[in-house]
Design goal:
The chain is an all-beta fold. 0% of the residues lie in helices and 49% in strands. The strands form 4 sheets. The protein has a 4-stranded antiparallel beta sheet with strand order 3-4-5-6, with no helix packed on it. Strand 11 and strand 12 (148-155) form a beta hairpin. It is globular, with a radius of gyration of 15 Å.
């Protein structure tokens, strides 16, 4: 039904339904203690949700195939600075240029189109598209090495690639 459900396991009842994707949900990322979750779908988009209101905060559109994996890191319980909490403000862009520093982004997506996208959570725009894989991206593992932020992407093409998010190319 293309929704995400939160359940009260003690009573066997749904407590929240997140609706908005037009295709099956393929992945989700939630940080313990956060009020926000990111989902990826076969509809080629990812969405940032506010779990308190059940509303879409931002839509990340730009993949040409399913969004198969997402990464999100926000334990501050604060919405992205430029988006009002609980606002239904679907932002989207497939542009790969922005004045934002990609190393400060906290939302990344990987798709069956073989690319990793870095998103600015404050406006929903793609700040960087990272190509190189010849198969779908199966997972993302961000890490910090010294002063640089990197992300490992692993793919159906049987490779693992290391991308430096501290650089703009």
């Amino acid at each position: 039904d293309n929704t995400i459900q939160s359940w009260d396991y003690r009573h066997g009842k749904s407590t929240l339904t997140l609706s908005g994707h037009s295709g099956p949900i393929m992945c989700m990322k939630w940080e313990d203690g956060s009020h926000y979750v990111v989902s990826g779908s076969r509809d080629t988009t990812a969405r940032l949700w506010d779990l308190r209101t059940g509303k879409t905060v931002a839509i990340f559109a730009g993949h040409t195939d399913w969004v198969k994996c997402v990464y999100y890191n926000n334990t501050s319980n604060s919405p992205p600075a430029a988006l009002p909490s609980g606002a239904d403000s679907p932002s989207s862009s497939s542009s790969s240029s922005s004045s934002s520093d990609p190393s400060s982004a906290s939302i990344l997506t990987g798709g069956c189109d073989g690319v990793v996208k870095v998103w600015d959570p404050t406006d929903g725009k793609c700040t960087r598209t990272i190509a190189g894989h010849t198969g779908s991206i199966n997972g993302l593992l961000p890490c910090k090495v010294g002063d640089s932020r990197k992300v490992l992407s692993y793919s159906a093409d049987s490779t693992i690639r290391v991308h430096d998010l501290s650089t703009t190319s």
